[in-house]
Design a protein that fits this description.
The chain is of the alpha/beta class. The chain has seven helices and eight strands, in the order αβαββββααβαβαβα.
């Protein structure tokens, strides 16, 4: 299986082909983790003729190395914080720091909800096949938080689908989902971006363009 992709669009098309071979019972809802997961998920949603929604989650980084995930916060009626206890032990960050950062990240989540979803409520996934997509996984902290929050919305089947991730991270996430689809599990794993020719940071305009390209999204509760 290919372990390097031209860009997120190509990765999404290849991921869609793999998902199309599975017996995915409708209704299907595709959920992207923005920003990077949106163009990947847009290809999947088009291929499966499924609505595309966002799963808004923000990473909380280690104080002196913000790219290293210490915890993650997920939007919802009761925002959920999931902490990587091993990273917390190693870096010594206390709960006061995590809670302060969570408040900051929830403000960014609210901004993204206004900009990307234009005030639309999240689609219902109750009783549906929910496919969660990102452009790759490293430590899995953000994804784990997103999956735990999504489970509370009672999908019938929860599928995690990504182009690339390390095998040990996927193994740690298997308890959170019903199925995992991953196109490449390189070892040793260093960084998601090393497996893309183009892995530029997406801006809001690119996210909106990818969402618009999928077409009209059903109202919440419709499938």
């Amino acid at each position: 299986m290919k372990d390097r992709f031209a860009d997120r669009t190509e990765a999404g098309r290849l991921l869609a082909r793999r998902l199309a071979t599975m017996a995915l019972e409708p209704p299907i809802v595709v959920l992207a983790l923005p920003r990077g997961g949106v163009p990947v998920a847009a290809e999947v949603a088009r291929a499966l003729h499924a609505p595309l929604d966002l799963l808004l989650v923000r990473k909380i980084g280690v104080p002196w190395q913000r790219e290293l995930a210490l915890a993650a916060v997920v939007d919802g009626d009761e925002p959920q914080v999931v902490i990587d206890e091993e990273v917390q032990r190693l870096c010594g960050a206390d709960r006061t720091y995590i809670d302060a950062q969570a408040t900051h990240e929830l403000a960014e989540i609210e901004r993204r909800r206004r900009v990307y979803l234009r005030g639309r409520a999240p689609l219902s996934v109750a009783g549906a096949t929910a496919i969660v997509i990102d452009d790759g996984i490293a430590t899995g902290t953000s994804v784990r938080a997103a999956l735990k929050a999504l489970r509370r919305r009672q999908p019938k089947r929860l599928v995690l689908a990504v182009p690339v991730a390390p095998s040990d991270t996927l193994a740690a996430l298997r308890a959170e989902v019903d199925d995992i689809v991953c196109l490449a599990e390189p070892y040793p794993f260093h960084a998601i971006g090393l497996h893309y020719d183009d892995f530029h940071q997406l801006d809001d305009a690119e996210v909106l363009a990818a969402l618009d390209a999928v077409g009209p999204t059903p109202e919440a509760g419709e499938h």
